[in-house]
Amino acid sequence: MATARFPGKGVDVAAANWTAPALGRPVCVNGTPWILYLLEECVENVWEYCSVVIGLVSMFCFLLSTLPQVYEAYRNGKVEEGMSFGFLFFLFSGDLTSFAGCYLTSQLPIQVVTVVFYIFTDLILISQFIYYKIKNNSSRKSPVLKWLCFMWCGAATLVLLALPKLIIDNSSTLDTQSPTTSNSVEITGYICGYLASIFYLCSRFPQLYKNFQRQSTEGTSYLLFALAMMGNGTYGLSVIVVLPALKGSKQTFILKHLAWLIGSLGVLILDFFVTAQFIVYRKNNSAKSSTLLSVPEVEPLLCEEVELSLL
After folding, report:
1. Taking the mean position of all CA atoms in its chain, how far away is CA 200?
2. Whole-angstrom Cα distance, residue 181 to residue 293?
3. Along the 311 residues of the chain, how does pLDDT read in single tens digits?
4. Measured between alpha carbons, how far is residue 190 from residues 78, 101, 175, 185 in Å?
């Protein structure tokens, strides 16, 4: 198991390709060097290679997905009007449980760093939401609020930078546990993965309701959902592509990844509804924008007509 946004599948695939170490003999025969070095997976055929590449594309899409919303919130300063706090809460909860699953199942360093980056971007989105909500509801500017926000983000950055090293250092301790303890820890890690998938699935409903309630998608970036759709779609494809290369039971492989497949495909379907909202409410967004732009042009004309009538 890996992160819920990018669940691992290499353990099942690679296990069949690893050979028992012998003197003067490499552990992985005919494996792709860069994948073996970066992901510690033994990839020996085109199906597994395509699966890994598509999986990396999925991870890359998820890494970039929250950045457009961060910029959109900074640009318009109305994130509390456009974003649902429930969406941010469930997204953050999903990443936290995914992080716990990574720790308990001793995932690869690249997966640990990835999920830490997810948490970092979640904290930025939540900090922006709280900052602009307090700022827009306050009658006067407060420089203290801005400095508190900067200090919070700085402290969170330092903590998150230290977390990957701590997890990697402690992973050896988990690996040396007894088989019974190791199995219980692994089961707990899989439970965390199931919870993460549920959190990701639940995250879309508050945002769908908020968009429907406002009849608008203003204040949210569609790239957030578009990149998430690409990430979920490519993840599902990476799991399907690797099936012909499996030497073990395909049913067991599917069952191990069923929770994340349901979560990914479920979120993908819900994001289609979000896409429909962006299309349907696009006219409302443009009408609001044109109204706001026309106000300063009308007021001087009205004032001029009143002055002429008084003369």
Report:
1. 9
2. 64
3. 344 454 444 444 444 444 444 444 446 777 788 888 777 778 888 888 888 888 889 888 988 888 898 888 888 877 888 889 999 999 999 988 888 877 777 666 667 777 788 888 888 888 888 888 887 777 666 666 666 666 766 776 666 666 656 655 555 555 555 566 667 777 887 788 788 889 999 999 999 999 999 999 988 899 999 999 998 898 888 888 888 877 777 788 777 777 778 888 889 999 999 999 999 998 776 665 555 544 444 444 444 444 455 55
4. 38, 7, 16, 9
State in Å, rounded, how far the first CA of the chain is from the last one. 80
Rounded alpha-carbon distances, angstroms, from residue 22 to 13, 14, 35, 43, 199: 21, 18, 22, 20, 45
Domains contained in the chain, number? 1
Residue 122: CA atoms inside 13 Å, Cβ hemisphere, count? 23
Residues whose CB is less than 8 angstroms from the CB of residue 87 and which lie 6 or more positions away in sequence, other chains included:
203, 204, 206, 207, 210
Buried b / exposed e along 189-221 (16+ C-beta atoms within 10 A): bebbbbbbbbbbbbbbebbbebbeeeebbbbbb
Structural domain includes residue 199? yes
> Is residue 183 in a domain?
yes
CA separation for the pair 25, 47 (Å, rounded)? 25
The Cα 303–Cα 268 span in angstroms is 52
Q: Does 8 reside within a domain?
A: no
User: Is residue 275 assigned to a domain?
Assistant: yes
- Domain encompassing residue 82: 33-171+178-242+250-284
